[in-house]
Amino acid sequence: MTDIQPVLPRTQAPDLNVPTVGGGSWKLADSRPQNFTLVVFYRGLHCPICRKQLSDLQNKLAEFDKRGVKVIAISSDDAERAAKTAEDWKLDKLCLGYGLGLETARQWGLYISAGRGKTSIGIEEPALFSEPGLFLIKPDNSVYFASVQTMPFARPHFDDILGAIDFVLAKDYPARGEIENLKTVRAA
Fold first, then answer.
1. CATH number of 110's domain
2. 39: which of 6, 98, 165, 182 is 20 to 30 A away, CA to CA?
């Protein structure tokens, strides 16, 4: 596998093309949001925290839509587990992508974990899966915001994300965290 590299703001997001529950596929390059595409990477069917997070996200889809934000949630689960996620978690409005390759997850700077048996809700973890991440991508497919985690806990709250979107749109706030090479900046 490749080394994990951060996905820097103001750079082009890595390619992303996944099948979706219910048929078809979703491509980041084809997303045409007014303001942002919100890409939520979740751990999968085995994760009770993901269930709570995605249920909250589905409940706020109209608020994201009002702000010109298109939304997708993606996991490395296979088609069967993704369909079960949609059904069991009652995610009938949220676009769910699945089959995220672990190499693609690494390109997005996501961390990979090994399965450790059944979780607290009695569902077996996959052998390998990606940990959570949340990205706001601008219409030109450049990264605006990234939050990547090594653990399932303490994720950004969608009310906070909505408030941040309101602020950045009102103030035309630039993407931050774009500096890659400190030596180049210090020399300038």
1. 3.40.30.10
2. 182
